[in-house]
């Protein structure tokens, strides 16, 4: 061997050894403010409890702190300030690729400072201090670590109690037996349109989230009886918070995988300005996976999205934030132009589907004084959804079978005032004004006339108004009350609702807590429902224009117990009574909008339906301790509905029960390398379906359902296991993570439903997603 080569090899070997032996560190810094007024807290003490010797720092006059040369790892951080409760932040990850930047809100203490024990219950408290029941915080680390979550909050939430995924191919979730479309999405304190690719009209989910985990910070997920500031939802709320970009150092994240490529950049606008930017772009084509031999269907699928957050301080007491997201997605399928290869009816169909949505907002936040904080936001949002498909006839000409084009846009103005009336009383009040624009068309093929018939044809604008006020009362160190009112009105038909809300939390001792929540909630229907067109004697009528809001009463009783500093148990039981639900009129009709999931209903409806959901949930969770975490959630529930036939029937989502086990463990492998393994196993009752009348279907050449047996058939129980393995390596100034997610690792054939195949005159079964491997590689620097 060449002597020079030997020398270079030896030097390279020693260089590797030097890097491997090097102890890598990173900076941990952040900002500390009062929980209500958002005033900076100078002189607060920040300690890393897992270091020896202890590392820490003190906040400056603007509430900022910085701890340098922190060894890489996972820490518990305690923030202390005289007259305030200690804030405990667990699972704070410090990597070499990026600085760790925290935003901490601390709560004023009613009594004398006492010795604080780090309890598991502290992790369960929500970012919003007025959520008393059925709420939990989720972090970016959870969306990244949970097996098969693929950085999607909705897919991650299916690990939580009371949450059931209704379709592997989409992130639709049913909360406590409710329709997936009863969910509300919020961002930075304001309602946003459905932030998912491949969304159908009127839905609250889609194929995959537009919002990248790169932009999110700790956020709240609420599953019922939510406080007064949330409205226009019946089941749950995703209350998302955006992370500010690093305002001292430019940083990058690049992630490549089978689902696409993400590129994120963040940093300061200038050295002398504390503002920052954070931008993420993603492009993907799922057809790559299909080309590797994984069966994903016959559609060519593409999507791309952009999201951003610009933080702009405008003085010591005010800031402006410009934020937004946008996503483009489409699916296309071409018919088989050879009749000899028509094995099933779908081979003759071609389709084009687009789903585009976006929002951009500007938020002004101002600290008026030590007791008042005002936040004003203006948001412009919109969506364009289109779906067309046709059938080839014997001459290979395309006969239209369905066409829809739904355009909606909205301008929202909101202003919210937070007031600290005293250490015991906090008041939050606000108003939301929405200007809605719509341009919607839908046509469907009529088998009787042999022509396309107009189902929806509407263009115009309307308004909606929401207002709320809620009071937080800390009656004692152990008892907290939240009470308030929410008002919702749709000016299209002046339907409205005044809704009382109540939450109570009582700490039995330092380890136990009981909670009680009640709320009256309402929801506006998808706009297209109001404009369903009906032809009567040659005249077009709108029978649904005066539909009232759907409403529900929701009561929740909960019990929390910390079994040790890292292990928490939680039990909740609930009852939800739904009323004014749109149904088809008639004692022989079984249709209820509670079961409508994919498309807009265009039949005449009346507000005389009922529904009820009740059940119990159990959660046992170990927060990361010694690099191990697990979450066991189980629920039993019943979900029923009633029409004018005066009979309680199962809803589509009444699986009866659900159990999910999620866990993960990290192993230190050599210095600065971490091997992680995460798994999730789901076992739940199958969704309900309506049986198909085979003989009638054969006779008519199309699917005919046994409507008298609506949702009496139940799919086989659902079972799925996912696994994620990852290797993270910290290098000087960079962190690299290689991960493999295997969804449905046992390739279990879960049933989605059945359909009638006219060409074979028999029923066929549709199965959910098979085993899918997803490889990704992320670099942070």
TrEMBL record:
Signal peptide positions (record): 1-21
Protein origin, superkingdom: Bacteria
Transmembrane helix as UniProt keyword: no
Residue ranges the record marks as coiled coil: none
Keywords recorded for this protein, A-Z: Receptor, Signal
InterPro entries: CarboxyPept-like_regulatory, Plug_dom_sf
UniProt key word Signal: yes
Protein name as it appears in the record: TonB-dependent receptor
């Amino acid at each position: 061997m060449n002597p020079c080569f030997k020398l270079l090899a030896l030097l390279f070997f020693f260089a590797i050894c030097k890097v491997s032996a090097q102890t890598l560190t990173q900076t941990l810094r952040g900002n500390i403010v009062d929980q209500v007024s958002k005033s900076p807290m100078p002189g607060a003490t920040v300690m890393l409890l897992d270091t020896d010797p202890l590392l820490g720092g003190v906040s400056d006059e603007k509430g900022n702190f910085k701890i340098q040369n922190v060894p890489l790892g996972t820490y518990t951080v305690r923030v202390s300030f005289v007259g305030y409760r200690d804030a405990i932040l667990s699972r704070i990850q410090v990597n070499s690729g990026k600085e760790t930047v925290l935003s901490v809100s601390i709560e004023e203490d009613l009594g004398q400072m006492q010795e604080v024990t780090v309890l598991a219950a502290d992790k369960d408290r929500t970012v919003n201090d007025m959520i008393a029941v059925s709420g939990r915080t989720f972090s970016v680390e959870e969306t990244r670590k949970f097996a098969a979550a693929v950085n999607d909050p909705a897919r991650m939430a299916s690990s939580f109690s009371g949450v059931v995924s209704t379709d592997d191919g989409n992130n639709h979730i049913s909360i406590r037996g409710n329709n997936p479309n009863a969910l509300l999405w919020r961002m930075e304190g304001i309602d946003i349109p459905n932030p998912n690719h491949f969304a159908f009209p009127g839905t609250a989910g889609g194929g995959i989230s537009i919002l990248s985990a790169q932009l999110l910070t700790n956020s709240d997920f609420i599953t019922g009886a939510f406080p007064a500031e949330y409205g226009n939802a019946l089941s749950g709320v995703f209350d998302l918070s955006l992370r500010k970009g690093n305002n001292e150092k430019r940083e990058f994240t690049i992630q490549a995988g089978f689902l696409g490529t993400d590129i994120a950049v963040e940093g300061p606008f200038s050295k002398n300005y504390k503002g920052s930017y954070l931008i993420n772009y993603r492009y993907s084509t799922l057809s790559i996976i299909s080309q590797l031999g994984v069966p994903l269907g016959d559609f060519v699928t593409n999507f791309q999205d952009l999201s951003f957050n610009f933080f702009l301080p405008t003085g010591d007491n005010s800031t402006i934030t410009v934020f937004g997201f946008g996503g483009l997605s489409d699916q296309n399928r071409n018919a088989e132009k050879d009749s000899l290869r028509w094995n099933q009816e779908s081979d003759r169909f071609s389709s084009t589907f687009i789903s585009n949505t976006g929002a951009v907002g500007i938020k002004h936040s101002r600290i008026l004084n030590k007791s008042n904080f005002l936040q004003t936001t203006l948001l412009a949002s919109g969506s364009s959804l289109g779906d067309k498909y046709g059938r080839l006839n014997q001459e290979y000409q395309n006969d239209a079978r369905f066409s829809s084009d739904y355009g909606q846009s909205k301008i929202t103005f909101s202003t919210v005032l937070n007031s600290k009336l005293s250490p015991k009383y906090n008041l939050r009040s606000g108003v939301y004004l929405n200007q809605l624009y719509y341009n919607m068309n839908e046509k469907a093929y009529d088998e009787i006339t042999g022509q396309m018939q107009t189902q929806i044809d509407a263009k115009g604008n309307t308004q909606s108004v929401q207002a709320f006020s809620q009071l937080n009362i800390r009656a004692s160190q152990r008892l907290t009350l939240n009470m308030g009112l929410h008002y919702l009105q749709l000016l299209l038909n002046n339907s409205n609702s005044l809704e009382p809300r109540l939450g109570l939390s009582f700490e039995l001792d330092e380890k136990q807590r009981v909670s009680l929540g009640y709320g009256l909630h309402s929801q506006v229907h998808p706009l297209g429902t109001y404009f369903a067109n009906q032809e009567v004697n040659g005249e077009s009528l709108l029978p649904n224009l005066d539909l009232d809001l759907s409403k529900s009463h929701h009561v929740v009783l909960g019990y929390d117990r910390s079994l040790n500093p890292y292990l928490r148990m939680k039990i909740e039981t609930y009852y939800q009574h739904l009323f004014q639900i749109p149904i088809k009129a008639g004692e022989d009709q079984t249709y209820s909008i509670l079961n409508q999931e994919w498309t807009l209903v265009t039949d005449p409806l009346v507000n005389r339906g009922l529904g009820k959901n009740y059940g119990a949930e159990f959660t046992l969770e170990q927060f990361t301790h010694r690099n191990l975490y697990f979450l066991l959630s189980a629920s039993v529930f019943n979900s029923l509905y009633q029409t004018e036939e005066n009979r309680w029937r199962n809803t589509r989502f009444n699986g009866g029960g659900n159990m999910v086990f999620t866990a993960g463990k990290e192993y230190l492998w050599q210095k600065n390398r971490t091997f992680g393994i995460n798994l999730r196993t789901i076992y739940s009752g199958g969704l309900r379906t309506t049986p198909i009348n085979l003989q009638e279907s054969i006779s008519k050449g199309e699917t005919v359902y046994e409507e008298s047996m609506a949702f009496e058939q139940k799919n086989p129980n659902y079972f799925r296991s996912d696994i994620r393995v990852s290797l993270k390596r910290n290098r000087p100034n960079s962190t690299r993570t290689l991960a493999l997610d295997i969804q449905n690792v046992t390739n279990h054939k879960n049933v989605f439903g059945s359909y009638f195949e006219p060409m074979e005159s028999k029923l066929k079964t549709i199965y959910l997603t098979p085993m899918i491997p997803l490889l990704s590689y992320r670099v942070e620097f």
